[in-house]
Amino acid sequence: MATTALPGRNYLEEDATTIGAWLKAWFLTVDHKRIAILYLLSINFFFLLGGLAASVIRVELITPQGDLLSADLYNRAFTLHGIIMVFFFLIPGIPAVLGNFLVPLMIGARDMAFPRLNLFSWYLYMAGGIFALTAAIFGGVDTGWTFYTPFSSTYANSNVILTITGAFIMGFSSITTGVNFIVTIHTMRAPGMTWFRLPLFIWASYATSLIIVLATPVIGITLLLVAIERLWGVGIFDPALGGDPLLFQHLFWFYSHPAVYIMILPGFGVISELIAAFSRKRIFGYEFIAFSSMAIALLGFLVWGHHMFVSGQSVYAGLVFSFLTMLVAIPSAIKVFNWTATLYKGSISYRTPMLYALGFIGLFVIGGLTGIFLGIVAINIHVTDTYFVVAHFHYVMVGGAIMAYLGGIHYWWPKMTGRMYNEVWGGISALIIFVGFNMTFFPQFIVGYLGMPRRYHVYPQEFQVLHVLSSAGATILAIGFIIPIIYLTISLWKGAIAGDNPWDATGLEWEVSSPPPTHNFTTTPVVTREAYDYPPDAAEVDAANWRPGSPL
Amino acid sequence: MQDFPLFPEQASTFAGPVDVLYWTLVGLSLIFGGILPFIILYLMVRYHRSQKVDRTNQLHSSLPLELTWTVIPLVLVLTVFFWGAFLYIDMRTPPDDSLEIYVIGKQWMWHVQHPNGKRENNELHIPIGQPVKLIMTSQDVIHSFYIPDFRVKQDVLPGRYTIMWFEATQPGEYHLFCAEYCGTEHSLMVGRVVALRLADYERWLATPGEIILPDGSVGGAVPALVEAIGDPMELAGGQLFASLGCAGCHRSDGLGIGPNLAGLYASEVRLTDGSLVFADENYLRESILNPGAKIAAGYANVMPSYEGQVSEDQMNQLLAYIKSLADANVE
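^ Those are the sequences you sent over. The predicted structure of the assembly is below.
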């Protein structure tokens, strides 16, 4: 740590000569970029595992009978899918990988405010993951990722405690990352990097961190209470013991609704970066996008009851939560309109990250609009707990968060690794994912409105055609996810050298070498310009320089 | 080619209004979700870097534009909110003349008892053209009673009653699903709702049905029960009221150490702390299982708890009896 960065040296290079030293250099690193790589590998591992569970579910659902799996195994499969994807992929995904890598680089800092805490958060994440995996290996858990009581606390006879412990520990990983981001963004911005010069990814990460720090303790306490009731029979949620089962749902969704924004807000931040870079102009309505993130963070705390419209809460509560849910739609709409307006008079290129960004807008719009359907109680009564909800949140989570994650990975890949990937394959896989995704999840809106309940292992014959369509789409989607793993891996050895700024983008992260040196900046940068300060004629110049044969 | 519907049947009075609201939202979504992608596609092509078009005088922010795309969606979502809100209030307010049917959910079946005592499992027979109110509870975990073709769903909770109502419009058989994940055989906790014309329904009610034991399970061959429909719920409840000793304190002449229960249901009860409580099913249930929780003004906290002594089934019968006292009082 003591040596200053030599010219040409980067954070991936190694002094280590022995395996022990190499292990130490990676597993005890406090470099935010290396920690981001540790997260990248572990989070993608969990993503593949969750995807495997999803594949099993989709194969089972091809026929209306339960022929591949027993009912019990099916329940364990969708629970595993939900827990892995929510707690170990979507929630940490963008903040821990892209956020860890980019926050210090974007604000002109040498590292996070608490580098050791940052490393500790990765160990917490892994510890939580090991608990969850252990639970899966010892037979799994069949409560669904929602752990509804009193089923989870009294009736389920699967590995509830182990799984809850995993999620509980993972929560602390989130909190430490959130605290680290907040302090870093407050205290470590380079001279001249005022709040309104921050890239929008930073605004989004900041809003996300606030939610993480305020909401995650609630789920920790709630899961602890479930464990206490389960282990010692203390009546908290089970009415047979004197508890209240709805109390659990209130506490659970008080975290888990904001958690949706923990997943999607960083995605919004990524998309803002991509749209500006590949339109070659300043983002439209910077302040509105920044403040809409904060508005979402605030309003996101007030709408948890919309998960409980048919749970038995009062009519008044239903109306209030429905009303607030309508309001939370607005900031998201503002973002979409501002991104669209950014395209106007830009010089747009169809590079891989931009394809993901455009795909994100299309899918997120569908996810957001169907959210309004669900926010209206009269319709929610019919479609809640059906495949309509399943389709809706996959449009937001997969169509939104994962598209943004992949877009971000492709955009900053040259910065992280110093190499370019194969753009042809990049474009092809982005299209495959877009098509496969819609084919998987659009039929689920229809089968959901028909009344197909979620978490059904066997189902009436008349829903089969739509399920087959959905499973076929899932196959395409799976291929779309596998292709990037291949060409990105190949690029590590075969990829062209990227150079410092392959996209000609603005932002401090593009001013350092690729991959960045260990300490990011040899001299602390002084910021004198706004975010996305493309010259007024940048788009014109870019278009004028385009020749047949240049990248599209 | 098998049956392959794309839209559910409309078989209750709610189905039409819910679907109109749904299609309105689909229409509005197409304006946003359908047109916006084409605007994006247009901009993508028009301003692609290979296109020689005017890119001068770029705009980076515009308050009028921001206000436009804030206010218009806001007005639209508030409009559909209020539309949906009135429909929702309607869906949650059962008419007074509803036919009351008691439902008990348990892993993994539905048990139904009709006021005349007739029981059924995983089936619900109802008349068309008449509001039906389901008074539902669970013996174990949370379930959810869902009839897609009626567009109604309500979670069924242990330890309390939840209420759902609908009015079927078409005779026929409809899916009945458990919509809240409840354990291993959740997807087998299904059945059918049979909507009958009133005359057919009444004939069905009077016909002895399956052999169903009072605990809700389908019993073996018990010849005596094949013949009997069972006592009407009020009668069974009245017998319980006597055999559990309730009648000793809750005397009908009002001279007991407990309040007279005539006219209690659906009235407002003044408590010792001065507050008023509406005497619905949940209040009656709580007062039987946990009498100390809410004490009626003028009475002492002396009633013992009946927790563990009354099954869900018997509780329903007691409720039916206490409600019948309310009706008697009106006359």
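The CA atoms of residues 250 and 261 of chain B lie 6 Å apart. DSSP finds eight helices and twelve strands in chain B.

Shout if you want it in another format.
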